[in-house]
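Title: Prediction job returns without error message
Component: structure pipeline
Severity: low
Priority: P3
Assignee: unassigned

Description:
Job completed but the reporter wants confirmation the result is attached to the right record. Sequence as submitted:
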Amino acid sequence: MDNRDLKARLAARFREVNGDHPMTAADDAYVTAWYTGLREVCRAAGRDTGETRRLMLAGRLPLPAYLRSDGTEMVPSDLFALADAAGGVDALHGWCVAHWDDPAAGEEEWAAYLSGQYVCLRTVSPRTVQAKAALVAAITAAPGRPDAGTPAWTRRLHRLVDELDALEPPFTAYDRLRFGGPVSREVCIDAVRARWPRTA
């Protein structure tokens, strides 16, 4: 199978996972600012683009984060960083799953990683995935705390929101389409800051 066929298959697989949603000019500008074309990333890392596409299709590397409107597969510039940290693509699955105490949870996060949909993080790693999950859980639970609304509670809440803000990119309108609703930044950062303004 040549690179053209691999690219077409990868685009089809991307749309199976994310839906077939149009990318606007604003979406393209965002993606170009935050991500890099697959060919450029492979060239910089000394990797073969065709083989990388095969690994993505085989569920051994994550799918592209986005397909730009011109069809360019856009990926994080550090696409190969986790595989390198694991000791190679063959070791990546086991290395990733081992970061979770519950193997089932680890497998679930591995599947999410392979989907390419971890666009909610500036840098994807087991540490940042776990940190985001903990922060979202804490922010979501905060309004139910006995001291909710007090100055001390508000300060704690904003520390959590600021930590999440540092982990997450801005997102783009396309993300609301593929995720079927508001993104975590809107729910856990923007809405929280608007409802409970920061105190002095």
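Comment from assignee: result matches the submitted record. The two ends are 62 Å apart (CA to CA).
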